[in-house]
Write a structure and sequence with these properties.
With 391 residues, the chain is an all-alpha fold. Helix 4 packs antiparallel against helix 15 and helix 10 runs antiparallel to helix 16. Helices cover 80% and strands 0% of the residues. The chain has 16 helices and no strands. The protein has one domain: MFS general substrate transporter like domains (Growth Hormone, Chain: A, Up-down Bundle).
């Protein structure tokens, strides 16, 4: 069973796709809104286009997760998603106008968003009983993100923002190649009839609270993923400093992934969740009001360890605990769709209206309010997943 130790190549082949997948996010998230602004789109149009990245997460992971669970061909589906997503992104080079670009983004992200939930299942299955190694594998996603943010940010200091799609081409190539290095799930067979009803799991009050908490968390991230770069640019920050501030958040997230097991031993899921939500609420308020104070902004970005790292780490384990082996793929897909997808898209659109009508700071205050509501809901309803005594 100890494939992980017997073959270090497995570790690198698993880590590789995380690296390139998140490198693409590192090239897109900090700079795509600036690229769209440079192309002359309005704030509401920018919010709509950025929301597509989240919007397709509502449907795509469920469709692909269901296909993966039914067919057992997750590796092939990951490869198909990587190649097809890259081909659709090429539509950006046609400069298709707002509605054309909206279609390109929807098509590209539908296939691209299929990759991660499928891949999370492949990774956890490949690791087998060595689930604690997940952090070390997933870590390379964060490294890829930072490398892309710094690299693209540095180049954009020298070339116009309109060249951004060209800078992303090598990353697409990396995703396509690494998808074909993914270890195949040998002996993967169609699962037997699931134990327990999916409906019963999803309607469990603690699971409803869990999804609601994560939905509000992603609503609060809407202003960050859509307008953080524009907010910083308005306050006089250049492309590279903007990129470095994005990177700092991910560095903090890496640090947390490395020590997260200590927190999970010492604190309950509920305690970690509430602590992280309160810190996230503070983070958005600081970004809204004290953008010009570099030290405060650095501190706010370090809080990304709480607002993304801590909550994502406990969420992955929470889903495993509640959904079990038979519904794992669909549980992962629901988590991605209802939270990152629906929450992220709603947050992007709401922030678009707030920025258009008031200011970028108002959008971050909106995120802070969403977190205050999430703290109350989590305090009242979140319960730990059932214990697996033999796990």
């Amino acid at each position: 069973m100890n494939r992980f130790y017997r073959s270090p190549g497995i570790y690198w082949r698993l880590s590789n796709l995380y690296f390139w997948f998140f490198a693409l996010l590192g090239g897109l998230l900090p700079y795509w809104s600036l690229y769209l602004e440079g192309q002359g789109y309005t704030y509401l149009q920018i919010a709509t286009l950025m929301a597509t990245i989240q919007l397709t997460k509502i449907v795509a992971p469920s469709v692909w997760g269901w296909l993966g669970d039914r067919s057992g061909q997750r590796v092939r589906l990951v490869r198909f998603g990587a190649i097809t997503g890259s081909l659709f992104f090429a539509g950006v080079f046609l400069e298709p106008g707002f509605y054309g670009l909206l279609l390109v983004m929807l098509a590209f992200t539908f296939f691209w968003n299929a990759i991660l939930p499928l891949y999370e299942v492949i990774t956890l299955r490949t690791l087998g009983k060595q689930k604690e190694k997940y952090g070390r594998v997933r870590l390379w996603g964060s490294v890829g993100f930072i490398a892309a943010v710094a690299g693209v940010g540095g180049i954009l200091e020298l070339v116009p923002i309109s060249s951004l799609p060209w800078l992303l081409l090598p990353v697409f190539a990396g995703i396509a190649v690494s998808a074909f290095l993914v270890p195949s799930e040998r002996g993967e067979v169609k699962p037997k009839a699931p134990k327990g009803s999916l409906k019963k799991i999803v309607t469990h009050p603690a699971v409803v609270t869990f999804f609601l908490m994560n939905f509000l968390l992603q609503v609060s991230h809407g202003p960050y993923y859509t307008f953080f770069s524009i907010h910083l640019e308005q306050h006089g920050y250049g492309k590279l400093p903007i990129g470095l501030l994005w990177s700092l958040g991910v560095v903090a997230e890496i640090g947390l992934f490395l020590i997260m097991h200590r927190f999970t031993r010492r604190f309950s899921v509920r305690q970690i969740a509430i602590g992280a939500l309160v810190l996230t609420m503070i983070r958005w308020a600081l970004i809204a009001e004290l953008t010009d104070v570099v030290a405060v902004l650095i501190f706010a970005q370090l809080l990304h360890a709480a607002s993304y790292g801590a909550l994502h780490a406990i969420s992955v384990q929470y889903i495993q605990g509640f959904f079990g082996k038979h519904h794992h793929g669909q549980g992962q897909a629901l988590y991605s769709g209802l939270t990152f997808g629906a929450g992220g898209a709603a947050g992007a659109w709401i922030s678009g209206f707030l920025v258009d009508g008031i200011s970028t700071s108002a959008a971050f205050w909106g995120g802070s309010i969403a977190m205050a509501i999430a703290v109350v809901i989590t305090w009242k309803g979140l319960r730990p997943p059932p214990e697996h005594h033999h796990g």
